[in-house]
Amino acid sequence: MLIDFSDIEEKPLEHFKGGEGTFFARMFTDPKVKIMRGRLEHGASIGLHTHEGNSEIVFILEGKGKMLCDGKYEELSAGSCTYCPEGHEHSLINDSKGDLIFFAVVPEHH
Amino acid sequence: MLIDFSDIEEKPLEHFKGGEGTFFARMFTDPKVKIMRGRLEHGASIGLHTHEGNSEIVFILEGKGKMLCDGKYEELSAGSCTYCPEGHEHSLINDSKGDLIFFAVVPEHH
Lengths: 110, 110
Prior knowledge:
Structural class of chain A: mainly beta
Helix content of chain A: under 10%
Low-confidence stretches of chain A: none
Strand content of chain A: over 45%
Oligomer: homodimer
Distance between the termini of chain A: 22 Å
Shape of chain A: globular
Order of helices and strands of chain A: EEEEEEEEEE
Largest interface: A-B, 29 and 29 residues
Number of strands of chain A: 10
Mean pLDDT of chain A: 98
């Protein structure tokens, strides 16, 4: 099925997972998966959280930022892909001057 | 963890799932997920197959093509996202004149 993000309302999620500022997300969800187009403005972040029973795959579409994954920083830019396996933790940080826009999948592994 | 597709060899998969021509894939895999950057040349396709125990999320990066999903054609271009839930079937077809390049995730739901 097509998932047209332009047809999905962009919702503001304040201090998502304890992060800074607002995480804006257009999200499709069913019992097996979340599929989203996310946006973090300059200085915003998704707080550190552990993926229990699921994982997360992030593909950067526009902008720059960094992922803190199991204590290690990863530099991200358009085309970067980062994977947080089940049982691991990560935080996504926009420390750039522009928007950080990404495609992400959170599959349930059960 | 970063997944750098430029560090992953692009492997040719002939007549993948019974499709036409060659599917070229740079693929990361672990027991829970496959994460890939795929390429179909003009006229190539991934044959019709059903996702049993897993699903597939495809995000188009470059080019044009179509997905046949549960008997219905979906037109795809850069930025399109299509989801084949567990238990459903699909086929990806490059009926354009250029390459069709996509990012895809195949999560295991068990």
